[in-house]
Amino acid sequence: MIEVRDLRVRYGTRVVADVPVLDVGEGECVAIVGESGSGKSTTLLSLLGLTPDAEISGQIRVCGLDVRTAPPRRLREIRGARAALVMQSPQAALSPATRLGVLMRRALRLHGREATEQIMSEAMEAVLLDPALLRRYPHEVSGGQAQRFAIALAIALGAEVILADEPTSALDVTVQAEVVGVLRRLRAERGLALLLVSHDLALVSTIADRVLVMKDGVVVESGAAAEVLAAPSHPYTRELLEALP
Amino acid sequence: MTMLRAERVTLGYGKRPVVHDVSLDITEGGVGLIGESGSGKTTLARAFLGLLTPMSGNIWYGDKTLKKADLRAFRKDVQPVFQAEALDPRMRIGSSIAEALPRGDRARVRELLEQVGLDPDLAARRPHQLSGGQRQRVVIARALAVGPGLLILDEPTSALDVTVQAKILDLLAGLDTERLLITHNLAVVERLCRTSHVLFAGRIVESGPTKDLLAKPAHPYTKALRDAVPKLGGAPPEARGRTEAVPAATGCPYRLRCPIAVPECEQAPALRDAGGGRQVACHRAGDVT
């Protein structure tokens, strides 16, 4: 789903992300962890060509498409559809004056898809939301519901991989558990791949297959999540783990 | 010793109550208020700071209610620590702290910066020139400037990276002031508070020694909160019951979400003594496993 080799993202002369290898296969969950400014979000956005001011080198393939050389029309076919983006604050990403159903229908049409009630209801049910919520405005649903709606949009558009930037860090723990549950189910049932950016090592340890630890733009350690987090070899990973309250 | 006491306090905005009939003491060893967004924890903190007048009930400061207490002395004794964004972006750090000191004592500013583990030369900087962790230390230094006996901390570390959070927690744990800590982070409460109160929909559903509360929750909501926290290398966090049902307007507020609710829960449970310094408001407290 995602294949990255020798990715370098630069703003001017400053390298903000340097990622030698990043692969996410079908049904896999890979997490990028690190602190503010480590380059984890920049890495994620660069994979979909969403860092327009940055200078990028290396190879990025998402759903088989070479993101760096693909014409904009081809890129639009995967961005937001086969490769969906879920951000930290869904309510900020949803137009406040538009009902959820209208938002979903618009997104489907924008990508040239059919927007039937059935497709929309099925997508809502896949994330355990009542399809009746499609009649609501974004401010009329909770944060957890809005985040699951963002995932439902991805499902309606036939996402094969979801790139999620801190998808649960604005949510209460009980609601986070529910969103995580939905993502796990989609992985198991649909083979959905997941690239997760998070600062929460404990959360990552419970859902990720593999993990990349970033610091100051550099991947300092990577490997199987269970191994890296149980027996970290880099001092920074150890520092992160020891800092957990 | 009890520094502040809420006695059957109901709080709200306009005519709508959001905290209902809450009684709690701020005692030694740190007190935690735990709950999710909208549970009323910040509203309760505002009342303890004298920034919100109760619709009914009283906040006691020593032997006087806040309405009658000497507010000058109270404000020196009880200081808030909010998230670091509370600093004036145009003011230099030193001036921000000196504002709270008599005659803007600059030598004391340097002492305070050192006390919170900052280089005193940072006094000349402005907030945007500092990191998030440094700004949070400045906010703590400013609260300490008046020599308070109690800090009221509202999510003091939730915007910080874990390594920075760990250092701020060390700093707070080492201060000899008492604290009321408001947070949704159970691990932080465990570290800093001997006693905790769990709020749901503006009501205390469980109180007691923090360690016992988290080791063996007696209320299904406390259990749901505890089990939802991901543990390093543990099983994925588990959602229990319907996490998004709105609190019930009558009876037990948690019953629509509760996985073990019974018809009896349509009657509101009273907060009752459960032994070992614990209190719980649940008809099925004995069945929470």
TrEMBL record, chain A:
Q: Which Gene3D superfamilies match?
A: P-loop containing nucleotide triphosphate hydrolases (3.40.50.300)
Q: Which GO terms describe its cellular component?
A: plasma membrane
**Key words of the record:** ATP-binding, Cell membrane, Ion transport, Membrane, Nickel, Nickel transport, Nucleotide-binding, Translocase, Transport
Under Pfam families, the record lists: ABC_tran
- Give its E.C. classification number: 7.2.2.11
Task: Report domain ABC transporter positions.
Answer: 2-241
Q: Does the keyword Transport apply?
A: yes
What membrane topology does this protein have?
A: Peripheral membrane protein
Q: Which GO terms describe its molecular function?
A: ABC-type nickel transporter activity; ATP binding; ATP hydrolysis activity
- Family, per entry: Belongs to the ABC transporter superfamily.
PANTHER family noted in UniProt: NICKEL ABC TRANSPORTER, ATP-BINDING PROTEIN, OLIGOPEPTIDE TRANSPORT ATP-BINDING PROTEIN APPD
In Swiss-Prot or TrEMBL terms, this protein is called Nickel import system ATP-binding protein NikD
What organism does this protein naturally occur in?
Answer: Nonomuraea turkmeniaca
TrEMBL record, chain B:
SMART domains given for it?
A: AAA
Cited CDD domains: ABC_NikE_OppD_transporters
Q: Name one GO molecular function term.
A: ATP binding
Output one GO BP term: peptide transport
Q: Which UniProt keywords apply?
A: ATP-binding, Nucleotide-binding, Transport
Please tell me the species this chain comes from: Nonomuraea turkmeniaca
Q: Which residues form the ABC transporter domain?
A: 4-226
Which SUPFAM superfamilies does this chain map to? Answer: P-loop containing nucleoside triphosphate hydrolases
For this protein, the record's InterPro entries field holds: AAA+_ATPase, ABC_transp_ATP-bind, ABC_transporter-like_ATP-bd, ABC_transporter-like_CS, Oligopep_ABC_C, P-loop_NTPase
Instruction: Give the protein's recorded name.
Output: ABC transporter ATP-binding protein
Which NCBIfam families does this chain map to?
oligo_HPY
Q: Provide an example Pfam family for this protein.
A: oligo_HPY
